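pinned: reference chain
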Amino acid sequence: MDTKNSVNDAYSEVEILKTSPEAYQKAAQAIRAGKIVVMPTLTIYVLVCDAFNASALQRLREIRHSPSDKPITIVMDKSKIPEYAVIDERQQQIIDIFSPSPVSMYVQKKAKTPLDAATASSNAIVVYFQDSPIRDLYECCGTILAISSSNTKAQLAAKTIEESIAYFGENVDLYIDGGPAQGDNASPHIDIRVCPVESRREATHFPFEKIKAILNEHGLE
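pinned: its structure tokens
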């Protein structure tokens, strides 16, 4: 099989826009209509859909070959978090430090929320908010987003639009091309529900030691 030609064929059959305010507006319309978009973050490309749309979430899991009970990371600004999570004063201070940032945080989910389809059986919400095209899209959408790295199970996260298309082809409704990604792995995850804060996923571009140093500077852990 000629992999290069296969990718080129897929590339010609999908809709691709360069990052721009117009592209974000079109992506926002697609997401509000229940569709799935691929776009860049500061490090890798991600799949994005409406966090409240159960059908879109199911489809996102299916094209990634992810389990139906796998929680999906949620994009929301810090003002929204208390609507869906139980936050104490210490946790709020940590959120204020790391939102926006390249760090994702585990917060305690309220007993029942409209995000249950995204969080599945987990009692936590993994919250992510970053100064990147994701923030631009979020502000255009006017809704909370669900994101997952642009790769299929056990494969490396896509760092270019071409790699994303090779994974998903026409299974994604719109691709936003921001050029080669600046990193090679997804955001670090920290659990701020426990004291001291625990690492749930490491990332070379923002190591846990750096996170702990920042917390210590603020008298937190």
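why pinned: The chain has one domain: 3-87+103-185. The domain at 3-87+103-185 is CATH 3.90.870.10 (DHBP synthase).
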